[in-house]
Structure formats: C-alpha cells, structure tokens
Amino acid sequence: MDLHQIFQGGYTDYKWRQLGEYLKGKQLSAGAGIKLETSTSSGSVISAKKPREIRQSQAPPFSVLNTRATSSSTWAVELQEGWVIERHTKNDSATDAIEFHEVQINGQPMSSRPRQEIVLQNGEFVYVQYETDEEGFLNTTPTIEHGASVQNSTHHQPPSGAGYGYGGTYRVKIFQFVNDNGSPKIVYYQQSDIEHTRLPTFRNVGGARYIHKKWEGSADRYDFRTLKQFIPQNSSADYGKVIVDFTANDELDGQNDAIKFSAIAERETDPQINVNDNNSGIITIEGNGVSGSIRFEQCDGTEITTLQWSDGLITGPDTDLTIQVPGCGSSP
C-alpha cells in the first residue's frame, strides 16, 4: 500500500497503522542476494545474503591430503595423485598426441589404494623426477622424491648438425614441508599436472654441407648457415649468382625468400663450347670436337708457322707472330 491508497476515503485505524508502517520504512523490496530483517529497536536491517560455499570435489594434483606425526621430528604425508603430460607433435596415427604418465610414489602409482605415504622432516622439499632421451621423450617412469634440497634440472639437447644430443633429467618442485612450532605447514610451488616441454629437432638430410649447423644450448637457439652470393669484381655481369637479388629493405620480405642457382649452359644453336654433366657431381666444359691446322709457308715451301686447333680451341703456336704473305709470282 502506498500513500495514495492510505489517504483515499475516510480515516480508519487500519490506515493509521499502515501509515505508521510506511513511515518506519518497512515497505522495502529487497533485490536478489539481499536479506531484509526487522530491527530489534526500530526500522529494518538490510544485509547481503551469504553465498553458498561450493566445495571442491577433488583436491588439486600433488596437493597434501593428510599429515600425521610419526615422531617428534617426522610426519607421514598423503598426496593427491598427479601426472606428467607429454605432447607428441609428429603426425603418427598410431601414437596418441597427448600421453599421460602417472607419477609413482614408493614404487606404486599414486592412484593406488590405500594411498602411499612419504615421511618428511622439517625443511624437506618434495619434487617429481623423470628423465628423457635426446629428443625429449620420456624414457623413465616419473617418481615422487624428497630431500633437503633439489638439484638443478638439465634440459635435453636435441641432435643437431653433426652432434647427437643428449637426454635430460627433470626435477619439478611441488612443495616444501615446514615444522611450524610443532604444526605442519605446506609451502606450495605447484598444484597442477606437469606439462613436459620438448625442443624441436632439426635434421640435415643428404650428404652435403649442413644448412642447420647446431643447437646452441647456452644461448637457447638454433644456428643455421648463411648462403653467400659472390659477384665478380669490377664487373656488372649478371652471372655467378647463388641467392636471389635483394629487392627490398628488409631481409624478411617475401621477395627475398627464394634461392636460385645460375646454370652453366651451352649455346642452343651451333655451340662452340659443350657442357657435359656426368650426374656424379662433375660438369665438364668441352670444345665442339673440331680439330685442324693452317700452315703458313714461304713461296719456296719453307714453313713459317702452323696455326693449330683441337676440339675447337687453338692449341698453338705459343708465340706472337707477324706474318706477311706476299703473293708468289708464277713459275717461269
């Protein structure tokens, strides 16, 4: 009821009560999530409804589920199971692209029941350890380990260039156990399954010089050799090219992507030089197979010199000559 309704018609006790309730501000419309209660003194109390607590159905991977003291300095600890996830990027229909490796504790899978326990002392670290081959594929079963410290992990190094690479040993810290004045305290580093990261492997095929030189582990990069183009000095001749002309201001531009090689070719019509390829890596430059000579004589038949050529190329004489050939008179 609003004021308009209260003041319509004559006065009644009911309307006076309604006016009193109205003036006390009790006629409130609480929205969603709002709780309206009558105050013990006067007026109304407005408060937010406490949201319903949603309980997690399962603890996160590798989290601590239970601890119990086994002595004044040691505790037995139960853990939620966890996995090491390995991604296979190769196109192989027989291999699952995502492989899960269940971690073991005390030689048993973490999912086994009853749960396995580990006994910890103050300050000890709990970690997952596993090993891989040189291409980063797991070759051991991941295990839960613990100790006063955690050794550094070594990343696998993939085969590259002429090198064979080597495997890696991984130690992923989960938490540290602390004795806090007689009460166990957990300092978490990770509460999720472990994603194992592999490095890609590059391979040079064939038996020639390697384009991929090596994986430079200390700099975390792959090194590739550069193709170099030699242009004849003091010449504008357009030959001897190995890579495409640089046609832009940025080496990353698309027009610089191509690689081209100049070919040695003979003239298509009446070649004077022949080019023969034995398909075994040898290109032979040859003449046209024409041989002969020109003999220069005096009028009495005495030889002056002989110009010789073999396979289309002049072979002699190896000297500079000036030959004057006067006409010889007729015999008497």
How would you classify the quaternary structure?
Answer: single chain
Q: What percent of the residues sit in helical stretches (DSSP H or I)? A: under 10%
> What is the total tally of β strands?
21
Largest sheet: 4 strands, antiparallel
End-to-end C-alpha gap: 160 Å
- The fraction of residues in strands falls at 25-35%
Across the major sheet, the strand order is 11-10-12-13
Mean pLDDT: 82
Low-confidence stretches: none
Order of H and E elements: HHEEEEEEEEEEEEEEEEEEEEE
Radius of gyration: 46 Å
Number of helices: 2
Kindly summarize this structure in a few lines.
The chain has 332 residues and is mainly beta. The protein has helices at 3-6, 13-23; strands spanning 34-38, 44-48, 64-69, 74-79, 83-87, 98-102, 104-105, 108-109, 117-121, 125-131, 143-147, 169-180, 183-188, 194-196, 212-216, 221-224, 274-277, 283-286, 292-297, 303-310, 313-316. The protein starts with a helix and ends in a 16-residue tail after the last strand.
Protein described:
There is one protein chain. With 332 residues, the protein is mainly β. It has a domain of 133 residues. The protein is built from 2 helices and 21 strands. The strands form 8 sheets. The protein has a 4-stranded antiparallel beta sheet with strand order 11-10-12-13, with no helix packed on it.
